[in-house]
Every structure is written in structure tokens, then in C-alpha cells.
Design brief:
Shape: globular
Order of helices and strands: EEHEHEHEHEEH
Helix content: 25-40%
Largest sheet: 7 strands, mixed
Radius of gyration: 15 Å
Distance between the termini: 37 Å
Strand order of the largest sheet: 1-2-5-4-3-6-7
Mean pLDDT: 91
Structural class: alpha/beta
Number of strands: 7
Number of helices: 5
Low-confidence stretches: 6-10
């Protein structure tokens, strides 16, 4: 499902809203890219604080086969009131997917057996390597982790 909102300046925000079955292929891509998948929500202060680091990685490493995907776990009733305004206000450029699947006990271990379900959490993977982080990042910490995948 896609939710589209336009404002007075005709700025259009499209939300790619999916259940876990539709999202799961994003966790298993086998190409020559490094995927950085960050699970976050607008109501999570540590998540919001670290988002600029992911945006900076997305911008600075755009020519290095790195793809940043921000997976919002915001509540459906807040898509229009909180999530869309947040995306606009912060001018987020990374791909954003909204995961709307209430059966988290089923899908969380499919992302990582190590994951308690707390956010922020991040999965970084490439064809041969996969690391899961249940923590906040600052830019330098994230850059160090990403560079390990660019060997």
C-alpha cells in the first residue's frame, strides 16, 4: 500500500507501507551492494538522534554500492500526523519503508535471532557477510562498520 501526501508546495511524500512478507526480500538480496537497514520510529528519541548519521552515509557513499533503507516502525495512526511531516522536515533522502506488521514475535527473529525487538537496530549485510546491531550509532561508529563491508 502507498500513502501519498502533497502539501501547498506540491511536495509529494509517498510511503511504501508493507507487511513483513513483502519486506523480507530486502533482507536477502544477493547482488554486489552493501545494505544498511535501520529500524526506527519517530517516537524513539535515540532513533531520531542517529538518523543524520545514516543520511550522511547514504550521501557520502552513494557511489560505493551502498544502499541505506530506513524501516519505520511508526504506528499506522501516526503516518499522516507524525511520520510524513517528520520526513519532510528532516528532508530524508534514504529509501523509507514503513513496516506495518503487528506479528512482531514472528518477524523479529527472521531479521536477527539476536534481536530483542528494541530500536534503534541496524542490519548491515552484503553477499557474504551479515552483522546485526541493537544499538545507536553516531556517524563515526557507523562509518567504521560500513567500511568493513567495503573490502
Amino acid at each position: 500500500m502507498t500513502l501519498i501526501e502533497k502539501n501547498d508546495t506540491q511536495e509529494k511524500i509517498e510511503l511504501n507501507i508493507v507487511d513483513f512478507n513483502s519486506f523480507e526480500p530486502y533482507l536477502k538480496r544477493q547482488d554486489n551492494q552493501v545494505y544498511i537497514i535501520n529500524f526506527w520510529a519517530t517516537w524513539c528519541a535515540p532513533c531520531v538522534k542517529e538518523l543524520p548519521a545514516f543520511e550522511k552515509i547514504n550521501s557520502e557513499f552513494s557511489n560505493k554500492n551502498i544502499k541505506v533503507i530506513l524501516v519505520s516502525l511508526d504506528f499506522p495512526k501516526q503516518y499522516e500526523s507524525k511520520l510524513i511531516p517528520f520526513i519532510k522536515e528532516n528532508k530524508l533522502q534514504s529509501e523509507i519503508i514503513v513496516l506495518n506488521d503487528t506479528d512482531s514475535n514472528t518477524w523479529i527473529p527472521k531479521v536477527s535471532e539476536e534481536w530483542s525487538g528494541a530500536i534503534p537496530s541496524t542490519l548491515i549485510y552484503s553477499n557474504t557477510e551479515r552483522k546485526f546491531y541493537e544499538k545507536s550509532f553516531n556517524y563515526n561508529e557507523l562509518k567504521i562498520e560500513v567500511q568493513q563491508f567495503l573490502k
